[in-house]
Amino acid sequence: EDREDAPQGGARSWSALPNTSLQVLCLRSCSDEIVRSFVAVSPRLRSLQVVDCKLQGIPGNLSQNLTSLSLTGIATLPDEQFSKLTAGCQNLRSLYISKCHISYITVALPYLELLSVTHCRQLTDQCATELLQPLNNPRLRFVDLSECRSL
Predict the structure, then answer these.
(1) What element of type H or E holds 143?
(2) Which of 46, 111, 136, 144 lies in the 20 to 30 Å Cα band around 88?
């Protein structure tokens, strides 16, 4: 069937996604554009997993409902962008960062209870020390810094 509004050459327009009522979303091995598109149409998101994606920056306005964020295998996002990303998620209760190329990030979240930063080979001692400061994360109860070889 030939439709005038169909994408040319079969290409999918990710910016045309409908709004969703998704609360949990896992995106694996996709582009920055796809991550941004799904985040933009998911205002009720409570949990977001981004695995092996090529993020170029902060993926839009993350939901204020977001309580769990997991970032695995993100090698393209600089430390400053990681810090800005987490700072925009003030209601996070759990943050998982694994196999990411980070050395020094800032995480200061009032409700954060669980912090897991694993297999991040370049993570510095100074960063780990600041992550554990009660002033930065007053409700922190569980920390996992395993397989961070530079510590």
Answers:
(1) strand 142-144
(2) 144
Q: How far apart are CA 116 and CA 97, in angstroms?
A: 6
**What's this model's pTM, rounded to 2 decimal places?**
0.87
What 3-state class would DSSP assign to 12? coil
∠ CA 63-59-24, nearest 5°, is 45
Say yes or no to pLDDT of 63 above 70: yes
Q: Which residues partner with 68 through β-bridges?
A: 47, 94
For residue 132, CA distances in Å to 70, 94, 117, 127 come to 19, 14, 12, 9
Which pair of structure tokens corresponds to residue 136? 């930065």
The amino acid occupying position 96 is Y
Q: How confident is the model at residue 59 (pLDDT cuts 50, 70, 90)?
A: confident
DSSP-based three-state secondary structure for 37: helix
- For residue 89, what are its two tokens? 């998620």
What is the rounded average pLDDT for all residues in the chain?
A: 87
What confidence score (pLDDT) does residue 12 get? 61
The radius of gyration computed from the CA coordinates of the chain, to the nearest angstrom, equals: 17
